[in-house]
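Exercise 7.
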Amino acid sequence: MGHGKTERDEQLADLAHLVLSVGRDIRLHGHPDTEIIEITELESLVMNHVQQHPGVSPTRICTEVGLRSSNTSAVLRSLAEKGMIERRPNPDDRRSISVHPTAIAAENLRRVRDTWTEFLAPHVDATVDVASAVELLRAVETSVAAALGTRSG
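Solution. The predicted structure, written as C-alpha coordinates, is:
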Protein backbone atom coordinates (compact mmCIF):
# COMPACT_ATOMS: atom_id res chain seq x y z
CA MET A 1 0.00 0.00 0.00
CA GLY A 2 2.44 2.66 1.15
CA HIS A 3 1.78 6.28 0.27
CA GLY A 4 -1.86 6.85 -0.72
CA LYS A 5 -3.32 5.95 2.66
CA THR A 6 -6.89 6.98 3.20
CA GLU A 7 -8.41 8.09 6.47
CA ARG A 8 -10.08 4.65 6.67
CA ASP A 9 -6.68 2.94 6.27
CA GLU A 10 -5.38 4.97 9.20
CA GLN A 11 -8.49 4.13 11.27
CA LEU A 12 -8.09 0.39 10.58
CA ALA A 13 -4.43 0.55 11.65
CA ASP A 14 -5.48 2.46 14.78
CA LEU A 15 -8.16 -0.18 15.50
CA ALA A 16 -5.58 -2.99 15.26
CA HIS A 17 -3.14 -1.11 17.49
CA LEU A 18 -5.80 -0.35 20.12
CA VAL A 19 -7.15 -3.93 20.18
CA LEU A 20 -3.61 -5.24 20.77
CA SER A 21 -2.86 -2.55 23.35
CA VAL A 22 -6.05 -3.05 25.38
CA GLY A 23 -5.64 -6.85 25.15
CA ARG A 24 -2.11 -6.51 26.53
CA ASP A 25 -3.35 -4.24 29.35
CA ILE A 26 -6.07 -6.73 30.29
CA ARG A 27 -3.51 -9.58 30.36
CA LEU A 28 -1.04 -7.50 32.41
CA HIS A 29 -3.77 -6.65 34.91
CA GLY A 30 -4.10 -10.37 35.53
CA HIS A 31 -6.73 -11.89 37.75
CA PRO A 32 -6.84 -10.59 41.32
CA ASP A 33 -9.28 -13.44 42.09
CA THR A 34 -6.99 -16.12 43.55
CA GLU A 35 -9.55 -18.82 42.74
CA ILE A 36 -9.02 -18.34 38.99
CA ILE A 37 -7.10 -21.14 37.29
CA GLU A 38 -4.51 -19.47 35.05
CA ILE A 39 -4.33 -20.76 31.50
CA THR A 40 -2.05 -19.77 28.63
CA GLU A 41 -3.22 -17.85 25.57
CA LEU A 42 -3.10 -21.06 23.50
CA GLU A 43 -5.05 -22.96 26.18
CA SER A 44 -7.57 -20.11 26.18
CA LEU A 45 -8.05 -20.42 22.39
CA VAL A 46 -8.65 -24.16 22.65
CA MET A 47 -10.83 -23.82 25.75
CA ASN A 48 -12.99 -21.21 24.04
CA HIS A 49 -13.46 -23.55 21.07
CA VAL A 50 -14.37 -26.50 23.31
CA GLN A 51 -16.88 -24.35 25.22
CA GLN A 52 -18.51 -23.30 21.94
CA HIS A 53 -18.44 -26.85 20.54
CA PRO A 54 -18.80 -29.35 23.42
CA GLY A 55 -18.02 -32.87 22.24
CA VAL A 56 -15.62 -31.70 19.52
CA SER A 57 -12.89 -34.14 18.47
CA PRO A 58 -9.18 -33.33 18.95
CA THR A 59 -8.78 -33.53 15.15
CA ARG A 60 -11.45 -30.86 14.61
CA ILE A 61 -9.87 -28.69 17.32
CA CYS A 62 -6.60 -28.94 15.37
CA THR A 63 -8.20 -27.90 12.11
CA GLU A 64 -10.64 -25.32 13.40
CA VAL A 65 -8.26 -23.57 15.81
CA GLY A 66 -5.36 -23.87 13.34
CA LEU A 67 -2.88 -25.86 15.44
CA ARG A 68 -0.52 -28.74 14.76
CA SER A 69 -1.65 -32.04 16.24
CA SER A 70 1.33 -32.20 18.65
CA ASN A 71 0.44 -28.73 20.01
CA THR A 72 -3.23 -29.70 20.32
CA SER A 73 -2.32 -32.86 22.24
CA ALA A 74 -0.09 -30.92 24.65
CA VAL A 75 -2.74 -28.22 25.23
CA LEU A 76 -5.50 -30.81 25.80
CA ARG A 77 -3.26 -32.71 28.24
CA SER A 78 -2.55 -29.50 30.17
CA LEU A 79 -6.23 -28.46 30.24
CA ALA A 80 -7.20 -31.95 31.47
CA GLU A 81 -4.57 -31.73 34.25
CA LYS A 82 -6.05 -28.36 35.30
CA GLY A 83 -9.53 -29.93 35.41
CA MET A 84 -10.84 -27.73 32.58
CA ILE A 85 -11.76 -30.44 30.07
CA GLU A 86 -12.87 -34.01 30.09
CA ARG A 87 -12.04 -36.48 27.31
CA ARG A 88 -14.75 -39.05 26.72
CA PRO A 89 -15.22 -41.85 24.21
CA ASN A 90 -17.24 -40.57 21.27
CA PRO A 91 -20.73 -42.15 21.51
CA ASP A 92 -20.83 -42.52 17.68
CA ASP A 93 -17.37 -44.08 17.38
CA ARG A 94 -15.98 -45.59 20.59
CA ARG A 95 -12.44 -45.53 19.12
CA SER A 96 -12.38 -41.74 18.95
CA ILE A 97 -12.54 -39.14 21.70
CA SER A 98 -14.78 -36.14 22.26
CA VAL A 99 -13.68 -33.18 24.37
CA HIS A 100 -16.06 -31.51 26.83
CA PRO A 101 -15.70 -28.51 29.13
CA THR A 102 -16.08 -29.23 32.85
CA ALA A 103 -18.05 -27.39 35.54
CA ILE A 104 -14.67 -26.11 36.76
CA ALA A 105 -14.11 -24.52 33.33
CA ALA A 106 -17.53 -22.86 33.41
CA GLU A 107 -16.89 -21.43 36.88
CA ASN A 108 -13.40 -20.28 35.86
CA LEU A 109 -14.79 -18.52 32.77
CA ARG A 110 -17.43 -16.79 34.92
CA ARG A 111 -14.72 -15.55 37.31
CA VAL A 112 -12.47 -14.35 34.47
CA ARG A 113 -15.35 -12.48 32.81
CA ASP A 114 -16.24 -10.86 36.15
CA THR A 115 -12.61 -9.72 36.50
CA TRP A 116 -12.63 -8.26 32.97
CA THR A 117 -15.88 -6.42 33.70
CA GLU A 118 -14.52 -4.97 36.95
CA PHE A 119 -11.30 -3.94 35.18
CA LEU A 120 -12.96 -2.25 32.18
CA ALA A 121 -16.06 -0.72 33.82
CA PRO A 122 -14.31 2.36 35.28
CA HIS A 123 -12.64 3.04 31.89
CA VAL A 124 -15.74 2.89 29.66
CA ASP A 125 -18.15 5.79 30.00
CA ALA A 126 -21.68 4.61 30.79
CA THR A 127 -23.01 6.45 27.71
CA VAL A 128 -20.79 4.49 25.29
CA ASP A 129 -22.57 1.96 23.08
CA VAL A 130 -20.53 -1.11 24.01
CA ALA A 131 -22.86 -3.44 22.04
CA SER A 132 -21.83 -1.78 18.74
CA ALA A 133 -18.14 -2.19 19.55
CA VAL A 134 -18.69 -5.86 20.46
CA GLU A 135 -20.69 -6.39 17.25
CA LEU A 136 -17.91 -4.81 15.16
CA LEU A 137 -15.14 -6.85 16.78
CA ARG A 138 -17.17 -10.07 16.56
CA ALA A 139 -17.73 -9.50 12.81
CA VAL A 140 -14.02 -8.79 12.29
CA GLU A 141 -13.07 -11.89 14.29
CA THR A 142 -15.44 -14.08 12.26
CA SER A 143 -14.23 -12.69 8.93
CA VAL A 144 -10.53 -12.98 9.81
CA ALA A 145 -11.01 -16.54 11.09
CA ALA A 146 -12.81 -17.49 7.86
CA ALA A 147 -10.02 -15.97 5.76
CA LEU A 148 -7.38 -17.85 7.78
CA GLY A 149 -9.37 -21.09 7.62
CA THR A 150 -9.88 -21.29 11.37
CA ARG A 151 -12.98 -20.93 13.48
CA SER A 152 -13.35 -17.79 15.52
CA GLY A 153 -13.53 -18.07 19.22
